[in-house]
Amino acid sequence: MPLSRSRDPERLRFTTSTARTLRLPTAPEGPPLLPWPLAALGGGAVAGVAGALLVAGVMLVAWFSAIAIPLATMLDFAAQVWLLAHGGAVAIGADRLTLVPLGLTVGAAALCSSAGRFAYRQGRQARTGDLSDAARRTLLLGSIGQVAAGYTVFAAVLAGVVAGPGAMWRPALGALAVSLVGSAVGACRAAGLRPSLPDWLRRGLRGAVAGGLGLVVVAGVVLGTAVVLGEPRVAALEESLGLDAGGVVVWSVAVLAYLPNLLAWALAWVLGAGFTVGTGSVVSLSGTQLGMLPALPVLGALPPVGAADPWLLGWLAAGVAVGALAGFVAVRGGRTGPLGALAAGAAAGLLVGLAHLAWAAMSRGGLGSLRLVGLGPRLLETLAVSMPLLLLSSVLGGLVTWFVRRRRPAS
Left (φ > 0), alpha (ψ -120 to 50) or beta: where does 157 sit? Predict the structure, then answer.
């Protein structure tokens, strides 16, 4: 009968081999598909054309249900909607729609990001060997600038054709901002650029990213709760519109395009600033005052008119939690002194507050004239209430995190 054998732990040996250093190529392999200027300028223009065609495709779905409308009119309206995403306006009879669909704007920036990444790679493939810092900087800035130029020229030409030369500057400036941000993200990613920052600022940026994600989550929870509570009103307004299959598709896409706006409005409400839905109206934690509103189903989620219950002020704790999260993430990694923790927490809170303010400002606009002008978060209240709330809670969260880590015994 065979006996079981046990291994002697002293006989176990672990061997290691010397690791070889793998040198990655510094440039993409193969020749470029296009010359660098053509790839950059053309990429920006193609990004603009692609975005406009996507909008036109959605409008075609609605046009099949109203084919009596001339095709040229439908295409003109689609071009106005694309320009609206860059700060333009849509003419509806005697009224002007100026509320920017931020979802469409983000999609346009994503297209520009792809164009910037492609332009940088084409320029890098045309240059052999390692690049100096000056040459790499020239390639990066040149890719960003040329993509933005191609995109802006397309937007300006389209605005001139659709709205006339006098209405070109606003969508052109918006297209310039969108393309610069988008192409910069894409080109920097392609270049593997990681700027050298002070430790406290790097930690602050990391905390700000966590805080920004927290703001999105809080806004989604608030908006979802409002829709659930107002579901009977939302359903009644949807039924009153009498939409067919094509209309339902277009309306769903429109809601997705304006979803970032709605999230910004919900965030303004939960952080105490509140928002307006027209002249003389306000929706805040303390109460709601409304006037005549258009029959838009999403407006059925607004709270009832009158003074709000005092317990709603408890929603402010969500803003405190987001700020504390930003401070915690900014300070939790590594070892730092009290001044470093204070600086990192303050940087995280300030950056989150500025991002919230910019988001609130971009989500404002009008749905027509008279009472339907100036919809969106109240900016002065955001500056006076929401930003200090985020900043102070982030600083407090960072200091508490530092104190807890300091009291914890070292392992």
Answer: alpha
The secondary element (H helix, E strand) that includes residue 324 is helix 316-332
For 64, the token pair is: 């099949």
Tokens matching residue 60 = 């075609």
Cα dihedral across residues 224, 225, 226, 227: positive or negative: positive
Q: How far apart are CA 164 and CA 3, in angstroms?
A: 95
pLDDT tens figures, 87-102: 998 888 777 889 999 9
| DSSP-assigned letter for residue 333 | S
Q: Which of 6-15, 25-34, 213-222, 278-287 has the lowest mean pLDDT?
A: 6-15
pTM for the model stands at: 0.87
Distant-in-sequence, close-in-space partners of 278: CB < 8 Å, separation ≥ 6: 290, 291, 292, 293, 371, 372, 373, 374, 375
DSSP state of 382: I
Residue 326 corresponds to which tokens in the numbers above? 């930003």
Q: How does 164-178 read in b/e, with b if 16+ C-beta sit within 10 Å?
A: eeebbebbbebbbbb
Structure tokens at 88: 């333009």
